Amino acid sequence: MIKAIINISLKAGVLDSQGKAVHHALDSLHFKDVNDVRVGKQIILQLNTDDKTQAMIDVRKMCEELLANTVIEDYSVELV
Amino acid sequence: MKVTILQFPGTNCEYDTQHAFEELGATTEILWHKAKSVPEDTNLLVIAGGFSYGDYLRSGAIARFSPVMKAVTAYAKNGGKVLGICNGFQVLTEAGLLPGALKRNDNLHFISKYHHLKVINNDNVFLEKLDSDSVINIPIAHHDGNYFIDDIGLKELEANNQILLKYTDENGNIKNPNGSLNSIAGVCNKSKNVFGLMPHPERAMELLLGSDDGVAMLQGFFSA
Questions:
Q1: Is A80 an 8 Å CB contact of chain B?
Q2: What ranges do the domains of chain A cover?
C-alpha cells in the first residue's frame, strides 16, 4: 500500500482571499512575524499498489483531470 | 423553440429557468444528469444554477463527470447553443467548454442581491437584443463568482469579443462585488455558441418582482 499526500493551493499570482483573511486574523492576534499566508487543501489517497513510479503517474493524472483545477491551482504529490 | 434544462443532484434553479422560458413561449424539458444524449429537437441547452454535488471539491468539478456531460460536450462542439447560469457557468469552465475559472468571492461571503451589469459585446445571439454599453439590473447569488483567467487568456477574450457582461453601478461605471478579474460577469467561447454568466436572468422576468431585464437576454435565443 502506498499513501499519496496531495497538496493543492492557488497558484502564485492568483489572489488567495482566504489566506489574506487568515493573515488579518493572525495579525489581530498580535502574531506580527507572519509575512504571508496561503490556504490550500490536502487530499490523502490510499493506493492498492507498491509501484511508486506507476503510482506517481496515476496520481498526477488524477490531479490534472479532477483533483486540481490547473487554471488557478498548483498541486504537489508526496508518496509515503 | 425547444429548451432542454440539465438537472444534477443539487441543481435548484431548473424550475425557475423552465418557467422563464415557457413564459416566453418555448417548450421545455428537464434532463436528468444520467441521460446519455441530448434530445434531438433541442435548440438551446441550459445548465441551470444551484449547488451540483454540494459544490464538493470545487463548484462544478464533479458535475463535469456526469454521464450527460459527454453528450453536452459533443452538442457544443457541433455548434449547439449552450447557456450556463451561475453553477452552470462553473460547470462549463470546469468542463473546458469556456475559458477561465471561478474562485471564491474576494470577501469570502455568499453574495445575494440585485446587481447592475453593462453589456460589453452584443455580437452574439445571447445579447443581440440589448444595446452595447446598456446597463441592466439582474440578481446575483453566488459564493464562487470571482472570475479568473491568465493574461494570455484575457487578451484572447478581448480580441474575440468574448466578454459578455461586466459588473457596474447603475451608471455603467465598474463596480466589482466579488473580485472578478476586470469585473467580468459573463463570457462566451470563441465560436459564440457557449455562454456562461454568474447573474440569474431567469430571476429577472417580471417588473412586479423587481426587474424584467432578463427577458431581452433570454429572448435572444428565440430569433436564432
A1: no
A2: 2-79
Q: What is the 3-state secondary structure (H, E, C) of chain A?
A: CEEEEEEEEECCCCCCHHHHHHHHHHHHCCCCCCCCCCCEEEEEEEECCCCHHHHHHHHHHHHHHHHCCCCCEEEEEEEC
Domain that holds residue B179: 2-223
Query: Among residues B14, B86, B116, B188, which one is catalytic?
Result: B86
**Could you tell me the pTM of the whole model?**
0.94
Q: For residue B65, which residues of chain A lie inside 8 Å, CB to CB?
A: 66
B200 is catalytic: yes
State which fold the A2-79 domain adopts: Mth169; Chain: A , (3.30.1280)
pLDDT digits (tens, 9 = 90+) for B79-128: 999 999 999 999 999 999 999 999 999 999 999 999 999 999 999 999 99
The CATH number of the domain holding residue B166 is 3.40.50.880
